[in-house]
Structures are given as structure tokens and as C-alpha cells.
Design a protein that fits this description.
The complex is a heterodimer of chains A (about 400) and B (about 450). Chain A is built from ten helices and eleven strands. Chain A has about 400 residues and is of the alpha+beta class. The longest helix of chain B is centred in the last third of the chain and has 41 residues. Chain B is elongated and about 100 Å long. Classes of the chains: A alpha+beta (about 400), B alpha+beta (about 450).
């Protein structure tokens, strides 16, 4: 079957302004569509990746002791004893920073003494209930024992290290590629050493927005409290968190006059805040790319309708000399196809250029070509769809129109 | 004549109401998306103290690891903060008209009647902070340099904190306890919202200023840590606060006010001299990079406008382009379709120029409609974004929501964009229709 491209093309070239405009729209729409979609998919993947943490059942308690009488360690022990005695509480731990909140400590670790200080890794201080309070799963080795929990760093021994650590699987793999990290020794920048006793997976630590949020290790130590502030994580039975949060806030605010409670909040709050920018960006980009496809689609539709109404007489003449309805429909669809094709070819170049700019700007891998192919197919389909109804209307023009004057 | 063209335009709109609506909608959407992104971009990229851009300088020195730069992302920049000892050494210089060393810390205020003790975002700073950054005072004044070190028990509160503690009354002379030490209020700051919080970009860039300000000497006396960003690189044994103050860790923000070029050059020479002397002692092993950075460059170096926002501005203009190209196509089709009417007008004596003007006015009317609708959409959109952010921040100030207020900048942009739309979308179609030979369109009638 011949599509009769030649006459359609030469007719197009004679009256090209409208076609060029549609092609330009398609080109820009393709460039935006492909790149925006690529960004959205990355953001959604980031937000959806498993954290290993039972976010929905954890509350975060922050308090600050502020008088000279305030004693950090006894207070923490007293609070934990009370929290753990509550029915509905699964586990509770003191910790150095709020998980998933994009703030915390990064400390260097190396695998042999006197090695040049390498990368910093996210250090999280917890006690023996820490893994349970976070909902993390050990995949190798063991948990910390109660007698391994170190007293907090003070302003006279702030450089002290810990004898044992538990690492996230990704960090274990980073430090000891291809080996079982359990039992291996690591060193801090002062050559103090610790043994890896366990591995957890999956886990995301204090910095979900960092390049490697899973380079995490846990230290069995009460968090330092030079400033008097403490953070507790409390994991509850499903469904009991809100009720317990009220109870906890009320009790802790009164239990010790030398400290104040900064807040008792669900962990979801901090996670959502960390991902807020990604969420807003995804919503915004999705909206704009829907609009851009919609506007392009309407533009093609309106222009096709207009063109057909100005060509009524020509269509009538063709019908009178023997063209079938099908031929008329095909004429307009092929015409639209040619225009869209010109648009997507230009669009591919634009999309790649924009993708290159973005990859430099975001320091991201270059645009995946899979997206480009999908975008091309999508815009092509949309173009045909938008031209379909006007083409059918054109085919309905009766041959007798040719014999009338206007 | 203008009134007549407007009437013609209205007539023309009612001939193809669907197409007209589509064109208005396309222009409106394009303008709405641009106004939204530009409003946020403008709020984000502002220099809150532009009038002192050639006087205020952030002081930084590259004391980092000889084997790697401070930031992998910007390897050519020195660290954004200073060590305690370097800040103290440079602070001794008399070259700057004003000089500030400062950092953020946490505190709890108690001991004010029945007001419950509560956490307060605090800042320790040398006295010049208030004059240098032109902080307005509601009551009282800043402390003077003598109170810095040895530190006197004086404190400056924000208006919000003063409202909370003293019900908004003039609290100068009243006492309160900050971390269980007695302080006397010497000043209350009036409304002051530096956006971004340029003087210290280590916390939330759009967080409000702190609520309590203490003389710098309290930092060492009470062993107060920086609660925002502290970075260390050297393998040093840091057990005590004294070790920390003597370390190569960075945690102090330093600013100087230098009124002219000669003082700038002298300050630079002073820094370089100090650097050379320290280098002899084994420090500063990286290439010399002692900087005085003005506020505009400081905001740029610290990437206050994030990548997402630059991408969004690009996207908004791409979207506007699609909308305008769409409109050009539709206008062209519409004008050429109405060529027979134009033919009659030309035959009756309308000049090309008049036909051109008539059609351009029609496009202008479309753009104005589009801009009005676009402004309405942008207001709604910004309100939605504001809601999204404010809800996530539990309605406390300081997030990105601070940047989503619709303001005169939005209106200005809408007007500019409407003009751009008229010219970009209207010029070619109006010109084309003006050039049509009238005779052809009269013949078949």
C-alpha cells in the first residue's frame, strides 16, 4: 500500500509555516517530557527505596537538660526504664541524631592503622535495644550486649572510640569488598580500633539526601550530651503510637524539673520533611509535563481542524474525482505523521542537549535512551490521536461541495 | 481608532470562541507557570543587604587537608567556615571598620515568671553584628565591644521571643536565665527577616534569624558548640573544649566591613601575612587561598539557589515557548481564515499598517486576558505550594514556604510576559495578514 508521501510532502512544503510551528512544539514538548520524566522517576525511586526503619511505628523524643543540677546519664537511664515499662512499647533507645532527618555525625573509618584518612561514614550511637527500636534486621553477626554499651563522651574524653560496631551491609561491602565483614577490625583517625560484630540490611541512616545514605555504622554508646540534649527513639506496637505519644509527653514534661521536652513527634514527620523537596519537584514536574503534552495535543487538534476547514473545497474535489473516505483520512494522518516526525527528530537533539545540561548540573548519569524512545512513541501516538477526529470530519465532506461556489 | 480595533477584536473572538478560549488558556498557563517559578526564584536569589555589597566581606582561609579539597562538589572553594584560632587571630586586626565572629548554638531560657522553660535558637557573636548587618531595634540597643570578652551577662532577644517571654513589653533591664545562667536583656530586635540568612549559611538558608544573641566570649566560657556545621579533617586528639578550640576544625563564621579598596587590600595583606607565618609553623599546606568574598558571591558560592530551582526556571520558559508557538499557529490559521474580511477592509482603504495594528491589538487583548487568568492561576498555584510546605513544617516559619508569597514581582513578570507573548505570538501573523493581496479574496465573492 502506498502512502502517497510525495504529494503530501510537496503540499506541506508549499505551505509550511503551520507545519513548522507544530513541529517546533512537538520538539520542545519531547525535550521537556523526556527529561522531566527522567527526573521524576529518580525522585520517586529515592522516596520509595527501603530504609529498613519501621517509620510508621516510631516516635522521636527530644529533651534538653538546662540546669547545673542536671545529670545526663541517670536521666537517660530513668527515662528508658520508664519508657520500656509501658505496655505497647516494643523497644526504646537513646540516639545521637534523628534517623532520616538529614543531620548527624560523619566520622572517618579505615581498614588498616595509619591509612590516609578516607571517607567519612555516618555514625549512629544506640544502645542494645537500638536495632529493635529502629526495626532493623541483622543479616550477619550479633546485636550489641548490654554490658558493651559505653558511657557517653564527655568534655574530657571526647576523642574516645568504641570497641565494637555494627555496620550496614553497604558499608561492610565498601570497607571489605567481597568478604564477610563480621570479625574484621576497623580504625578511626587516631588508630583506635573496633571490631565489626554485626551487619544490618537494608538501612538508611541520618542522611537520606547524601550520595550514599546506606554507608552507616552503629556505635554501642550513650550519645554525648555536652549540651544536655537527648534524643530517644521509641518503637510501639502498630496502632498505639499516637496514644503513647500523648502519654509520654505528659509524663516526661513533669518527671524532671531540670530539663524541658523540646518535642515528641512521629518519625514520619522528619522523613517527610527530608523528602519534601523531592515530592514537590515530582508533583510540579508531573503537572507541567501533563500540561505541555495537553497543550501540544490541543494545538495539533485545533490546527488540523482549521486546516481542514480551509481545504473543504479541495477535499470535495478529491472525493469527486474518486478518492475514498479512507484516502482522505489517510492523507491527513500521513501529513500529521510527517510533521510529528520532523518534530521528534529535532526534539531528540534538544532532549539530549537538555539531558547533557542536567547531567552536568545535577552530576547525574546521562539521560537513559529508553526514555527518549518512549517519549518519541508517546508523542507520535498523541499526534495521530489528535489528528484523527479532524481527519474523520474531513472524510465526511461530500463530493458535491466541489461543485458549489463557497 | 483603538476603541474600534478593540470592538473588531471582540467580534473576531466571538467568531471562533473555542479557538479563542484555547489561545487564552495556553497563554494563561504559560504565564502562570513562569510567574510561579520566577516568584520563588526571585525570593531565593535575592541579596538581602545589596546596598552593602561592596563593603561586607565573608572571611575564609583554606586550612584544609593537603591531600583533598574541602568540597568535592566545589573543589576550588576554601571551607565556608573558620577555625576558632584563625578567627581570633584575624579579629585582632584593626583594619576593618567593623568585624564579626559568630556561630549558632542551642539554649534553654527559663526563670521568667510563669513562662515554661523552652528551647531557644541562639547565636553567640561579637558586638558589631548588629551594626554591620543593620539589625533594627525595637527596644534598647546592642551591647558594646567591651562586653564581648570577658563576656558580660547581657542578651538581645528577637521580637517573637520578647512577645513570648514578656508579652511584648519593653524588657530592657529585665533578667532571665539562659542555660541556667543569669542574663540581662539589653535590646529587643524589631522585625528582621534576612532572606536568605546570608550571614550564616550553614543551617537552613531560609530559617528566620535566631531568637537570642549572646556576647562571643560566652562561647568559650560555657563551652558552647556550634549546632549547625562543624567539620574536622586533621587526625588530632580532641578530648576537651580547649583541644577543640586549638584544633583545625572549622565552625566559626567571620565577616568584616571594609569601606574602600585600600582597606580591602590591607586586610588581604594582613591575612596573607598571618597565613605565611602559620605556614612556617607547619599549617596551611594547601595552595594559598585566603578570601574576602562579598555577599553576592558568597550566596553564589554557597549555592543558595539550588539546582532544582534553576531547572524549574528553564522548564517554565520551555513551557511558555510551547504555549506561545501554539498560539502563533492558531493565530496564523485564524487570521488567514478571516482573510476575505481583511480583503474587504483593504479594498475599502485600510492601509497595511492599519491592518497590522488591528491584528496586533487583537493579539494584545488575548495576551491581557491570558495574563489576568495566568496571574489568578499562579496565585492559586503558589498557595498550593505554600500549603504543601507549611503543612510539612507544622506551620512553623523557616522552610521553603517563606519563598512562595505572591507579590508585586509576580505582577511585574506577568505584565512583561504578556507583552512578550503579544510580540512573540502576534508579530508574524499580523504581518502576514497585512501582506495579503486583497484582490484574490474579493474575486470569488
Amino acid at each position: 500500500m502506498s502512502l502517497n508521501v510525495r504529494p503530501i510532502l510537496s503540499a506541506l512544503l508549499r505551505n509550511r509555516t503551520g507545519a513548522v510551528l507544530v513541529a517546533m512544539q512537538v520538539a520542545i514538548a519531547l525535550a521537556v517530557l523526556v527529561n522531566a520524566l527522567y527526573i521524576v522517576v529518580q525522585r520517586v525511586e529515592k522516596m520509595r527505596r527501603p530504609t529498613g526503619i519501621d517509620v510508621d511505628n516510631i516516635m522521636v523524643i527530644s529533651s534538653t537538660g538546662f540546669t547545673t543540677r542536671f545529670q545526663s546519664v541517670p536521666t537517660i537511664q530513668q527515662d528508658l526504664t520508664w519508657l520500656r515499662s509501658l505496655p505497647g512499647v516494643v523497644a526504646a533507645t537513646p540516639t545521637s541524631s534523628i534517623p532520616l532527618a538529614d543531620g548527624g555525625n560523619n566520622e572517618p573509618l579505615v581498614t588498616r592503622p595509619d591509612a590516609h584518612r578516607g571517607e567519612n561514614y555516618n555514625q549512629i550511637e544506640i544502645d542494645e535495644q537500638g536495632l529493635a527500636a529502629l526495626g532493623l534486621h541483622l543479616v550477619a553477626g550479633r546485636n550489641f550486649r548490654h554490658d558493651e554499651i559505653q558511657p557517653p563522651l564527655t568534655t574530657s574524653d571526647a576523642a574516645r572510640f568504641v570497641p565494637q560496631i555494627i555496620v550496614g551491609r553497604a558499608l561492610g561491602e565498601r570497607l571489605f569488598p567481597g568478604q564477610d565483614p563480621v570479625g574484621k577490625r576497623v580504625f578511626d583517625s587516631l588508630n583506635q580500633t573496633a571490631t565489626i560484630v554485626g551487619v544490618v540490611d537494608p538501612v538508611i541512616g541520618n542522611f537520606p539526601s547524601h550520595e550514599h545514605p546506606d554507608w552507616v555504622y552503629f556505635a554501642p554508646r550513650y550519645p554525648y550530651s555536652f549540651t544536655g540534649s537527648s534524643i530517644y527513639l521509641v518503637r510501639t506496637q502498630p496502632g498505639q503510637r499516637s496514644a503513647l505519644m500523648r502519654l509520654v509527653e505528659e509524663h516526661l514534661s513533669k518527671s524532671n524539673p531540670d530539663r524541658e521536652i523540646d518535642f515528641v513527634r512521629p518519625l514520619n514527620y522528619f522523613r517527610d520533611l527530608s523528602y519534601l523537596g523531592d515530592r514537590a519537584m515530582s508533583i510540579y514536574l508531573t503537572t507541567v509535563l501533563t500540561l505541555i503534552v495537553g497543550v501540544t495535543c490541543l494545538g495539533i487538534f485545533a490546527l488540523a481542524t482549521f486546516n481542514i476547514s480551509t481545504r473543504t473545497k479541495q477535499i470535495g474535489t478529491r472525493r469527486a474525482v474518486g478518492a475514498r473516505r479512507r484516502d482522505i483520512v489517510r492523507y491527513f494522518l500521513v501529513e500529521n505523521g510527517l510533521i510529528t516526525s520532523a518534530g521528534v527528530v529535532t526534539g531528540c537533539a534538544l532532549a539530549l542537549a537538555a539531558g547533557y545540561w542536567l547531567s552536568v548540573e545535577y552530576a547525574l548519569p546521562r539521560l537513559n535512551l529508553y526514555y527518549l524512545v518512549s517519549g518519541v512513541l508517546l508523542l507520535w501516538a498523541i499526534g495521530q490521536l489528535a489528528a484523527w477526529q479532524p481527519a474523520r470530519r474531513a472524510a465526511a465532506v461530500p463530493p458535491s461541495v466541489a461543485t458549489r461556489t463557497v | 481608532m483603538l476603541g474600534y480595533y478593540m470592538r473588531l477584536a471582540l467580534k473576531s473572538f466571538s467568531r471562533n470562541p473555542g479557538i479563542t478560549a484555547l489561545m487564552v488558556l495556553a497563554i494563561a498557563l504559560g504565564i502562570a507557570v513562569c510567574v510561579m517559578t520566577l516568584t520563588v526564584y526571585h525570593a531565593m536569589s535575592g541579596n538581602p543587604i545589596w546596598w552593602k555589597n561592596d563593603r561586607l566581606y565573608a572571611v575564609t582561609m583554606d586550612n584544609w587537608d593537603p591531600k583533598q579539597p574541602y568540597s568535592k562538589l566545589s573543589p576550588t572553594l576554601p571551607p565556608p567556615e573558620m577555625t576558632y584560632k584563625d578567627a581570633r587571630a584575624l579579629y585582632r586586626s584593626d583594619i576593618p571598620e567593623r568585624k564579626v565572629v559568630t556561630y549558632a548554638t542551642d539554649g534553654v531560657i527559663s526563670g521568667v515568671g510563669a513562662v515554661p522553660s523552652a528551647h531557644v535558637r541562639s547565636r553567640v557573636t561579637t558586638a558589631d553584628f548588629f551594626a554591620m548587618f543593620e539589625v533594627p531595634f525595637l527596644y534598647g540597643n546592642a551591647w558594646n565591644r567591651n562586653a564581648d570578652d570577658p563576656a558580660q551577662p547581657v542578651i538581645v532577644l528577637s521580637r517573637q521571643e520578647n512577645d513570648k517571654l514578656f508579652g511584648g513589653a519593653n524588657s530592657v533591664g529585665r533578667t532571665l536565665r539562659w542555660n541556667d545562667h543569669e542574663f540581662r536583656v539589653v535590646g529587643v530586635i524589631a522585625d528582621w527577616f534576612p532572606r536568605p540568612r546570608f550571614y550564616d549559611l550553614n543551617g537552613g538558608n531560609f530559617d528566620p534569624a535566631e531568637d537570642a544573641f549572646l556576647p562571643y566570649g560566652w562561647g568559650a566560657a560555657l563551652e558552647l558548640l556550634n549546632n549547625e556545621e562543624t567539620d574536622c579533617w586533621a587526625p588530632e586528639k580532641i578530648d576537651t573544649f580547649k583541644d577543640f578550640m586549638a584544633s583545625d576544625c572549622i565552625w566559626q563564621q567571620m565577616w568584616v566591613e571594609l569601606p574602600d579598596r585600600s582597606s580591602r587590600e590591607r586586610m588581604q595583606a594582613y591575612m596573607d601575612g598571618y597565613w605565611a607565618e602559620q605556614r612556617k609553623g607547619g599549617r596551611f599546606q594547601r595552595p594559598r587561598d585566603n578570601r574576602l568574598t562579598n555577599v553576592a558571591n558568597w550566596l553564589r558560592d554557597n549555592r543558595v539557589v539550588d539546582t532544582d530551582n534553576r531547572v524549574l526556571v528553564g522548564l517554565a520558559f520551555a513551557f511558555l515557548a510551547v504555549c506561545l508557538i501554539n498560539t502563533v499557529g492558531l493565530l496564523l490559521a485564524k487570521f488567514l481564515n478571516g482573510a476575505s474580511i481583511t480583503g474587504v477592509r483593504r479594498a475599502l482603504g485600510a492601509s497595511r499598517r492599519q491592518v497590522f495594528m488591528q491584528h496586533l491589538i487583537e493579539v494584545g487583548a488575548l495576551s491581557v486576558l491570558g495574563a489576568v487568568l495566568g496571574l489568578a492561576l499562579a496565585t492559586l498555584g503558589l498557595a498550593a505550594v505554600h500549603h504543601l510546605y507549611a503543612a510539612a513544617h507544622l506551620n512553623r516559619p523557616g522552610g521553603y514556604q517563606e519563598l512562595t508569597h505572591f507579590d508585586s514581582v509576580g505582577v511585574l513578570w506577568a505584565v512583561i510576559l504578556a507583552l512578550v507573548a503579544t510580540l512573540a505570538a502576534g508579530l508574524y501573523p499580523a504581518w502576514r495578514v497585512g501582506r495579503l493581496p486583497p484582490a484574490i479574496y474579493l474575486k470569488s465573492q
